[in-house]
Amino acid sequence: MLTSANISIKLFNRKEEYMKKKEFKSSSKKLLNMMINSIYTNKEIFLRELLSNASDALDKLNYLALTDGSIDINRDEEEIDIIRDEKERILIIKDNGIGMNEEELEHNLGTIAESDSLRFKEDNKDQKSAEIIGQFGVGFYSAFMVAKKIEVLSRKYNEESGYLWESEGADGYTITKVDKKDIGTEIKIYLKDDTDDEKYSDYLEEHTIRNLVSKYSDYLRYPIKMEVSNSRLKDGSKDEYETVKETITLNSMTPLWKKDKKDITEDEYNNFYTDKFFDYEKPLRVIHTNVEGTVSYKSLMFIPSHAPFDYYYKDYKKGLELYTNGVLIMDKCEELLPDYYSFVKGVVDSSDLSLNISRETLQNDRHLVTIAKTLETKIHNELLDMLKNSYDDYKKFFTAFGSQIKYGVYNMYGMNKDKLKDLLIFYSAKKEDFITLEEYVNSLEKNQENIYYASGETIDKIKMLPQVEQVRNKNYDILYLTDYLDEFVINVLGEFNGKKFMNVSDSSLDLDTKEEKEALKKANDDNKEMLSFIKDALDGEVIDVRLTNKLTNHPVCLTTDGEISVEMQKVINAMPTDENVKAKMVLEINEKHKIVDKLKKLYKEDKDELKKYAKILYSSSRLIEGLSVDNPTEISNIICDLLS
Ligand code: ADP
User: Fold this and answer.
1) How large is the average pLDDT for residues 331-355?
2) pLDDT tens for each residue of 297-320
3) Residue 587 — φ and ψ, nearest 5°?
4) Under a CB-based contact definition with an 8 Å cutoff, are residues 505 and 565 in contact?
């Protein structure tokens, strides 16, 4: 943001007009240099940016005219003109859209990365108006990649005078009050001098402009007009040609979503997506639909290949652009997407929605509900198709947006879990890759009753958990859960295709034969008093201390009783609430480990020493689980005592 404190204003006279020379804010300067040199690898996109701005300006004016009867517009005259002046090396992009006044020129073009869209939204809140395309506020500056100087001459609708904004790049800009006959904006690009590497004068060539318009801006809904030279037969002649100048419309003006699928190339879809939704990577999937029926609509949706930078921020707004009768009504119609598909970008165009709508009535529009339902099914099917047929893409998708799907399963007490569970993938110990729950259940071992899972911070840490050993020894697969949401999701699901989920750290995990069970029970009974003594020594930290046969090499492990696992305890307690949950921990000691003999001996001979052992064993079981030790100094002292 520019503030009067951080800009220097130099006033000087220029004929009878006043002119202000202002510097871009210093961070803006850096950004401008970055913009010019690195954000866009391809200089030619400057034209796309300016044409999109012109189209936005026309959209804004049309939108205001919907709600403000005093705005007199003639939609037939709305257009964008490209004028080439080869002699002066100037390219002009002109529109008769909403225009900008002095303040807006200052605000929109004086601050890089400042899009007026937000302000437009704010200003129109009371009128329950629609919203206009939200943007980054950097596109305009891309013109400096090819321009040594830019002039923006603009007059806002309903205002008397025009203003001229001029800038030669990072040094700053001036704004001058000038006469301007028509409403709208004219952008004059003074092209840079040609160099050995770059021929800027190409942008004055008719064919270059024609190619660029058809490559990037063909779908813009306003005519982009330019004077071109055409050769035609002279009147009355059969073989004599003459060159005539005529103004033609360069773009087809059919929005991409209205075109027939078979006439659209992959590049066109990708260009449309990257241009409209400001992504530098092409989408993973395109969903283009044309529905004719009780509610007719066309839609073009995209599944991005990565999360936008603001996706996991509170301010991120989901939604699809909504058009009706060629007018953009909302840039983010939230009702069209469920939260769990909030990553989907796209456009919906339907003439079945009434035009004079305020947002409130639109929200209740039953047509909208019908459209949203079918779109949801389309997105779901597309994701399933990706999962089945392009697994690598799906993994990429899931890395970016898996949390959203998981959140969808878990949210609202699992209301949508059945719709989403087939989209979940988890890391499989056996396959060493991600698998679906269906794949897990379809490849159960003989006699395997449960879907086993283990949680931890990383796959490597989980692999080392003592509890994992026993289950893997039976050749059962284990899902390794590393996302903090995973266990909540598993809890909400409860079961999958009749198979229950079972945490390998659950104290009720029971993989023993009858004989093994009996032997273990006897060992526990025989040492009942000693185990109870250890439990008391731990002073309420654990609800039980047991001997176990589930461990191979490790002396101890920590398991839990009941619904809250150690991982869930960590997640819940890390949340910024007052809630402090405690998993019911059980310390299990490996009955085959030689430590048991030592414990028995101490129980008989030196109970004080046994207390110290109990504390060390419990602390090591906590460390294995990734939990901290509450009393590190005490433990460290005990260890030193024992060592010395
Ligand atoms: P963005 O278009 O991403 O918002 P730009 O840097 O391209 O960012 O433009 C900044 C702002 O300047 C726009 O949001 C818009 O308000 C205004 N603007 C740019 N070009 C025009 C134009 N031709 N007519 C009216 N306003 C314009």
Assistant:
1) 88
2) 999 999 999 998 888 888 889 999
3) -90, 120
4) yes
Ligand 1 atom closest to 93 (CA): 23
Question: 């050749």: which residue's tokens?
Answer: 475
**Cα 54 to ligand 1 centre (Å):** 8
What DSSP character marks residue 506? Answer: B
DSSP state of 311: T
The helix (H) or strand (E) run that includes residue 189 is strand 184-191
Which CATH number applies to 424-504? 3.40.50.11260
Interval 602-612: pLDDT, tens: 999 999 999 99
> 53 CB less than 6 Å from ligand 1?
yes
Number of C-alpha atoms within 13 angstroms, CB side, residue 53?
A: 27
Atom of ligand 1 nearest to the CA of 95: 23
Query: pLDDT by residue (tens digit) across 176-211?
Result: 999 999 999 999 999 999 999 899 999 999 999 999
Confidence of residue 354 (pLDDT cuts 50, 70, 90): low
CATH 3.30.230.80 fits 256-396, yes or no: yes
User: What's residue 356's pLDDT?
Assistant: 42
Q: Which atom of ligand 1 is nearest to 141's Cα?
A: 6
Taking CA 11 as the corner, what is the angle to CA 7 and CA 17, rounded to the nearest 5 degrees?
A: 130
Q: What percent of the chain has pLDDT over 70?
A: 86
| Secondary element (H or E) of residue 643 | helix 632-643
Closest ligand 1 atom to 60 CA: 25
Task: Tell whether domain 511-644 is in CATH 1.20.120.790.
Answer: yes
Q: Whose CA is nearest to atom 1 of ligand 1?
A: 137
Domain chopping of the chain, boundaries: 4-231, 256-396, 424-504, 511-644
CATH 2.10.109.10 fits 4-231, yes or no: no
Atom of ligand 1 nearest to the CA of 52: 2
- Ligand 1 neighbourhood includes 137 CB (under 6 angstroms): yes
- Ligand 1 pocket test, pick from 93, 108, 151 with the greatest ligand atom count within 8 Å of Cβ, gives 108
For 572-590, what is each residue's pLDDT tens digit?
Answer: 877 776 667 888 999 999 9
Ligand 1 centroid – CA 141 distance (Å)? 10
CB contact at 8 A, 505 and 453: no
Q: Tell me the torsion sign for CA atoms 499, 505, 511, 517.
A: negative
What separation in Å is there between the alpha carbon of 137 and the centre of ligand 1? 7
Report the separation in Å between the CA atom of 108 and the middle of ligand 1, taken as the mean of its atom positions. Answer: 6
CA distances from 328 to 4, 347, 516, 521, 602 (A): 36, 10, 71, 72, 80
Q: What is the DSSP letter of 317?
A: -
Residue 24 — pLDDT band, cuts 50, 70, 90?
low
Mutation probe of ligand 1 site: the residue of 116, 175, 220, 277 with most atoms within 8 A of C-beta: 116
